[in-house]
Amino acid sequence: MPSSHDWINKPLGVVEAMFAQSNSNPEWEAKVLEYFKGQLKEKESHSWVPSLNDVPLHYLKPNSLVKFRCLVQDMFDPEFYMGVYETVDPSTKANVLRCGKYKDVTECGVDLNSRNTVTAERQTFYCVPIPGESPWAKESYGCSSQARVVPSTSYVPSRQKRSYEEDDDMDTQPQKQREPHTEPHGNGDSKRQETEAPSSQTTAPSDCSSHLDLNFPLPGERGPACLVKVYEGLDSFKLNDTLEIYGILSVNPVLTVLGEEKDPSLLLLNPTESMETPEEQRAHDPPASLVPRLHMLYARPLQHNNPLLPSAPTEDQSAFVSSFLVEMASVRAELLAYLTHVLLGDGLAAEYLLLHLISNVYTRRDVLPLGKFTLNLSGCPLNSYTERLYQIVQQLVPCSYRLSMSLHTMNSMRLVPKKDYVANRLVSGALQLARNTSLFLDETQLEQGQLDSSGVRNITALGNLISWQKVDYDFSYHQMEFPCNINVLVTSEGRSLLPSDCQVPLQPQVTPPNMEEYLTTIHMAQFTSQINKFRVYLSLARTLDYSISDEVTKAVEDDFVDMRKDDPQSVTAEDLHRMLVVARLLSLSLGQTTLSRDGWMRAKHIDMLRRSRTEQQKSLNGNEP
Amino acid sequence: MSSPTSTPGRRKRNRDDIPATPKSTAKGSDDGLVSPPSQRRRGQDSSNGDLPAMPTSPGTDIASPAVHDTSLFSSPPQLYSLEVDMSSPLMYGTPSSRVEGTPRSGVGGTPARQRPDLGSIRKAPQVDLHSDADGAVASEQALGQKLVIWGTDVNVGTCKEKFQRFLQRFIDPASNEDENAGLDLNEPLYMQKLEEISVVGEPVLNVNCSHVQSFDADLYRQLISYPQEVIPTFDMAVNELFFERFPDSILEHQIQVRPYNALKTRNMRSLNPEDIDQMITISGMVIRTSQLIPEMQEAFFQCQVCAFFTRVEVDRGRIAEPAVCRNCNTIHSLALIHNRSAFSDKQMIKVQESPDDMPAGQTPHTTIVYAHNDLVDKVQPGDRINITGELLPLFPPNITMVIMAKQFYFCFIRPEDISPKSKVFVPMCSCIYRAVPMRENPRQSNVKSVYKTHIDVIHFRKTDEKRLHGLDEDSDQKLFTEERVQILKELASKPDVYDRLSSALAPSIYEHEDIKKGILLQLFGGTRKDFSQTGRGNFRAEVNILLCGDPGTSKSQLLQYVFNLVPRGQYTSGKGSSAVGLTAYVMKDPETKQLVLQTGALVLSDNGICCIDEFDKMSDSTRSVLHEVMEQQTLSIAKAGIICQLNARTSVLAAANPVESQWNPKKTTIENIQLPHTLLSRFDLIFLMLDPQDEAYDRRLAHHLVALYYQSEEQIEEEFLDMAVLKDYIAYARTYINPRLNEEASQALIEAYVDMRKIGSGRGMVSAYPRQLESLIRLAEAHAKVRFSDKVETIDVEEAKRLHREALKQSATDPRTGFVDISILTTGMSATARKRKEEVARALKKMIQSKGKTPAMKYQQLFDDLRGQSEAAITKDMFEEALRALADEDYLTVTGKTVRLL
C-alpha cells in the first residue's frame, strides 16, 4: 500500500533524519537526493505521488511529496537562505542545529549570531502547467495516478482509522466523474469541455485566482502555478523546459501573511521595502494558497507530454517502441484514412497533414533549424470548418493552441513574452509554448483592415517563429532570442501571408451539405482505443532516429542534378531542402529509420503532385503571386 | 556576541565629562566579544600620537557643547585626545569623529563625510593578536604592530603606510586609460591625481585595484576581503598625505577613495554566499532607478522636559534611542526632532546581467544596488556599467519587525537585541516620518529563511559612454586565457587558416566561397589609421559589403549568421527601419523632462557589424543617413537642442534584391538594384549571389544539403571549426593585431592600382578610383589580420586584389561589353552607355539640322523620324535623354509637346 510510505507523506522527516545523522558532513545533501531518486525509480512508485495537476491544492497535505508537470515560465533571481541554523530551546537553553533546506520558514528562536549558520543559495522558478495541454492528456494523466488524496481538512487525525472501503471510494470518485468526459469527444460542445476539462475539482482554486494574474502563456488557461525552489543543478534548467518535478509542497500561511500585511503607503516611504515594488511583491510572493511553493527534490525533463507513452527512457520504453513499430504501417493507414475524411476526401492534403504532425526540429545548424515543417493549408472552406479541424487536431496531439488571426487579436494580443521591470518578471505571451506544441494559426479569420504597430510586431514574430523557430523575447533594452520547437499549421483561403515550408491547396472531393454534421459523424465513428493508437503513433514517430545511407545520398544527389538539368528554374536549393524533410518525415511515418530509394521516390512523387496542384491554382486564379 | 554593556570604558568620543550613566550604545554593541583588558589601552597604541583632533563639521555641533553623548562610559577624561576611536579608521569620516575647534584647513579642518556606501561600518575593535596581560606593558610601538581590527588581519598602521607608499610611488608607464589623459606617465600617477584634486576641488580619488595589486598583492587582498575596514584606512591615509602636501587647499569634505576594477570582476550569475562582505566588481545594465531616498545618518533627540538635546549616530540603520535624559534624568523623555537630524542621499538601482554574458536559454538575473551621496543619479536606465561595491546580506524585513514590535513602540532598537554581524536593516525612515506603530503579529513567530542581498556602490563606471564618445576601444577587451591564445596561435600558424576560417563561416550555406571570404575579411576589418593631424580625420577601417541577387539565395541566412557571430551585431530590415531607428533620436523623459538621446542600430553596432536586409526596400531618406556612416564613420545629430556627433564605426553588411525580383543579366548592377551610385561606391565589395546553373555546382550543392540532413553533430564538428573558436579568433585578432604595410606590399598595391587604371584607360574607361585603392588596402590589412601577422605582405595584397577583382567581375561588368567598368558604380552609367547616349544626341542634332529652318517641331514626329532613321532601336528614354543633352548645349528647348530651336 502506498499509504505506508513515509517518504511521500513526510519527506521532511526523512530529510531531517539524514541531516541529523550527518553531523554536518555536507555529503548528506547528495544522500537525500539519491534516496528520493532511488525511491522514485521503483516500479510504479512515481504514480503514488499525488500530482498538483490533477489534485486540487486543498486536498494535498502540506509538506508532503507531490509532483507537478509544468513548464518553466520564468526564472527569478537566486536567493540566499539559511541552509543550516541554530535555534535555542527556550526551556532547556540548549542550542540545536537545524536544517533550513527544503523549507520556506524557520523554526522559532533562531540564533542569528550563531557561527554555525550556513548561508546557501537556491533559485526560484515560476512554473505553470504545460500550456495548451489537451483535455485528453490531462484526463489520461489523472487516471493513471494511483495517489490517494483525502480532503486536507481531516488529514491530521483519522488517516489510518479510515476504513479501506471509504478510502477506495475517495479514490474512484474522481474517475467516475470524469467518465462522462472521456466518451463524447464529438458531441458538439467540446468547446465547453475544454474549459471544464481540468476536472471539476480544480475549479475551486482557479476561481479565486482570477484577481491575481498567474501569468499563463495562453488565455483561458487554468490550473495551479507554482514557485519551485531549485537547489541543485541550476544551470541544467532552461526557460520553457517541460519538467515533471517531484518536490515538497509548502503552503505555509506565513508566506501569505507576510505578503499581504504591507500597506502600500508604507511601502513607498520605507527604504528597505522599496527594494520591491508592490507589483514585484505580488509577482514574487503571491499567496501560498494560490501559488504553492514546491521545494524540488528531483526533476525529470519530459521528452514528450503524451501520457500514453512510457515516460522514462527505460527498457520498457524500448520494448514498447519495438512492439509498436510492427503496427506502425497499419496505424498509419488508418490515420491517413481518418484524416482524408476530415479533409473532405483530399488524400494528398491528409498525407501532408500527417507529415506535419510528426515534424520536429531535431537539430540546428548554426542559425538554421532542421526538421521544421510548417504547413499551409490553403483553400479551406469558411464557416467554422477550421474550428472543427482544430478540434480534431487537438484530439490527436497532447499540446495544441488555436490562434485565430483576426485583426483584433493580432492587434491586441501579446504573442511575445516581455520583461516587466516594475514587477521584475517575464510577462508571458502566447508564443511561450512547450516543445512540440501544435500551433494552429487560423488565417481564415483575418479580414481587411489596418494592423497597428503591435499587430505588425506580432506578425513579424510569427514569421520569425516559422522561418527560424525562435522567438525574440522583449527585454525592453534588448531582445533575447529563445529557440523553440513548435509545429505551425496555417489554414487560409488563399496563400498565407506568413511564410511556410510547404503550401497545399485543399481540394475537397466531397461537399457535404452540412459540414458540422459531417465532421461530427466522422469523429464519432472513431473508438477511443483507435484514437489512442493515433496519439501514440504521432508521438512515437517523432522520437525515432533517422539516417541516410551513403548510397541513397548518392542517388538523391544524382536525382537533383537531373532535375536541374531539365529545368534549372523549377528546382532550387529550397526545393531540395523541402524534399529532404518530406523524405525524412515520410520514412519516419512508416516506421523506417533510414531513407530508402523508394522513400525518396515517394517523397519526390508527392511533392510533384503538390507542386502541380499549386501551379494549377496559380493559373486558375491568375492574379495570385 | 556578548552584550556590549560588559565592556565599559571602551569608547569615548568627546571631551564632555558629564558623568555617565552606563548604558549601551550602538557603538559599543560589537565590542567586548573577546577584548581582554589590555584592549582598553589600544587607543594609545595604534594611533600616532600627533594626529590632530578631528573637527566638527560646521553647522552641526556648534550650538551644542554637550551633545556628543552616546557612550557614557567612565573612561578617564585625560585619555580623550588620544581616544581609540579617533584614530581608528573605523571612526574616520563618521560624525562621531568630529571634534570642535580646529581651524579649517588640513586634515582636521576639512569636514569628513560619511561613507554610507561602506554601509554598515563595522565598528569593530582592534584586537591584539597575542592578547594577554603582557599587552598592557608592551611598548607602544610593538603593540601597534600587532594590533589588527577584530575579525580581520588588517593592521591600521601598516595598512595606512602601505597605501601611502603606493600613492607616492606607483607608476604605470603602460597606462592607456582615458582618465589618465594628460598625466605624465613617468611620474607617480596618484600623486598627480591628488594635485588634480587640489586644483579641481573634487574630493574623490579613484583607485584602480589592479594597480594596487601589482604594487602590493597583500594590500590588495586585504582590500578585497575587508573593504569596510580597509577603505576608511585608505581615506585616512590619503587625507593625511593630501593635506601634508597641499596644506592650504580647501575641500568640500575630506577625500574619499573609490577603488574600482577589482580583479574579482564577475558576472552576476557567479555571485555566491562566499562573496558577502567582500569587494567585488560586477558589470551589468541599469534597468531601473528609484527616486531619491533620504537616509538618516544622525538622529537628533530633544528632551521634552528640559529641552536638552543630543545626537545619536545611526549605526547600520539603527538608532539607539537614549532612554534617559542625561540632563534631567527623566526616563523616556527624549523625542526625535526629524528636521534637525542629518540625512544623506540614497538611491536604489536595479542592475541586470548584460546580455553578452548570459548562458543561452536562461533569463537574466538582477541585483539590487544602493548608491549613496554623489553617486546618486549618476546612472540611468539603459546604461551599461561596471560596479565596484560590496555584497551585503539583508535579513527579511519581517524579522526586524518582529523584534521591533516586541521591544519598542517605534523601531528604535536596543543594540543588545541584534548583534553587529547580523546587519539587520531597520526601515527607520518610515517610522520617523510617520510614526506608524508596528502591529505585532501573533502568528509570526517563525521567519522566512531567505536573505535579501544588495550591493553598496563604491564606484560606477559606465561602459558604454566611452563607446559613444571616446576614442579607444579596449574597454571591452576580452581576456583570453593562456591556453586559448595558444590554440588560436596554433590555428593561425596553419597555412590554410584563411580557407579554414572562411569555410567555418556559415557552414550551412553552400559555396559562395568568395563571398564568405569577403565577409570574413569584413569581420576582421582593416587597421584604424588616424590622419587627423593632416586634416583628413580618421580613415575608415571597416569593410562594407553589399550582397545582391536572386531571392532565395540564402542572403538573409548569411546575414543572420553574421549577426549571431559578432558580439555587437545589429540586424535590421530595410522595410522595417526608419532613419531615426537607424541613427538616433531624442526623447523627452516623461518624468524628469530631460532630453535623452536614444541610439539606433547604427550607433549600437559601433565596432560591430550592422546587417541590413532588404536594403533596396529602404526609403531614400533612410538610406541617405548611411552616406555619412559609411565613409566618415560618424553620425551627426542636430535636433531638439542636442547637437552632437556620435561614433558609428560600423561595418555595413547589406543584402538587396533586384528590382525585377529576378536578376536581369542584361542589365548592369545599378539598373538591377536601383540604388544611388553615391551609396554603391561606398561598398568595398559588391557580390552577386546568383544561381550558377551548372551541373557540377548542382552536384556539390546537393551533396552539401543532403549531408546537412544526415550528418551527426560530431561529424560536422570534425569538419568545421567551432563557432566559439571562430568568435575568439576574430576577437583576438581585432584587439591585438594591427598590421602595417611593408615596403613590398605598398609597391604591390601601387602596381595593382595602376594596373586597374590601365585596364580601363585602354578603352577610354576609368576602372579605378582612389576609393578602390583604399578598399584594397583595407582588404589586405584584414587578410594580414587573419594570419595574425603584424606586417601586410605581398600575399595579402594578392588576395585583396583577387577578391576585389572577383567582386568587380560580378558586379561591375558592363553587360554590353563584358568588361569590368568601375564607372558603373561611380556614375551609375557604364562608359558604353554614355558613349551611346552621345551618339544618339549627335544623330538627333544631325537630323534636326538636315531638316533645315524649322524653328518648331512636334515632339512625337521628331521621335518617329529619329527611330526611322536610326539602325538601332531607340527607346523613348534614350530620345528624351538626347533631347535633354541638346537642351543643355543650348541648341533647343522643349516646351510641352513642341521642340524649338534656339
Automatic annotation (TrEMBL), chain A:
GO terms for molecular function: chromatin binding. Residues 196-209 have a biased composition (Polar residues). It is found in: Nucleus. GO terms for cellular component: nucleus. The keyword Transcription does not apply. InterPro entries: MCM_complex-bd. Coiled coil: none annotated. Keywords: Nucleus. Residues 176-195 have a biased composition (Basic and acidic residues). Signal peptide: none annotated. This is Mini-chromosome maintenance complex-binding protein. The lineage of its organism: Eukaryota, Metazoa, Chordata, Craniata, Vertebrata. The gene is mcmbp.
TrEMBL record, chain B:
Residues 497-705 form the MCM C-terminal AAA(+) ATPase domain. Belongs to the MCM family. Acts as component of the MCM2-7 complex (MCM complex) which is the replicative helicase essential for 'once per cell cycle' DNA replication initiation and elongation in eukaryotic cells. The active ATPase sites in the MCM2-7 ring are formed through the interaction surfaces of two neighboring subunits such that a critical structure of a conserved arginine finger motif is provided in trans relative to the ATP-binding site of the Walker A box of the adjacent subunit. The six ATPase active sites, however, are likely to contribute differentially to the complex helicase activity. Acts as a component of the MCM2-7 complex (MCM complex) which is the replicative helicase essential for 'once per cell cycle' DNA replication initiation and elongation in eukaryotic cells. Core component of CDC45-MCM-GINS (CMG) helicase, the molecular machine that unwinds template DNA during replication, and around which the replisome is built. It is found in: Nucleus. Its EC number is 3.6.4.12. Signal peptide: none annotated. PANTHER family: DNA REPLICATION LICENSING FACTOR MCM FAMILY MEMBER (PTHR11630), DNA REPLICATION LICENSING FACTOR MCM4 (PTHR11630:SF66). Component of the MCM2-7 complex. It holds the Pfam family MCM_lid. This is DNA replication licensing factor MCM4. GO terms for biological process: DNA strand elongation involved in DNA replication; double-strand break repair via break-induced replication; mitotic DNA replication initiation. It catalyses: ATP + H2O = ADP + phosphate + H(+). The lineage of its organism: Eukaryota, Metazoa, Chordata, Craniata, Vertebrata. The keyword ATP-binding applies. GO terms for molecular function: ATP binding; hydrolase activity; single-stranded DNA binding; single-stranded DNA helicase activity. Keywords: ATP-binding, Cell cycle, DNA replication, DNA-binding, Helicase, Hydrolase, Nucleotide-binding, Nucleus. Residues 1-70, 91-121 are annotated as: Disordered. Its main location: nucleus. One of its GO terms (cellular component) is MCM complex. The keyword Ribosomal protein does not apply. Coiled coil: none annotated. It comes from the Eukaryota.
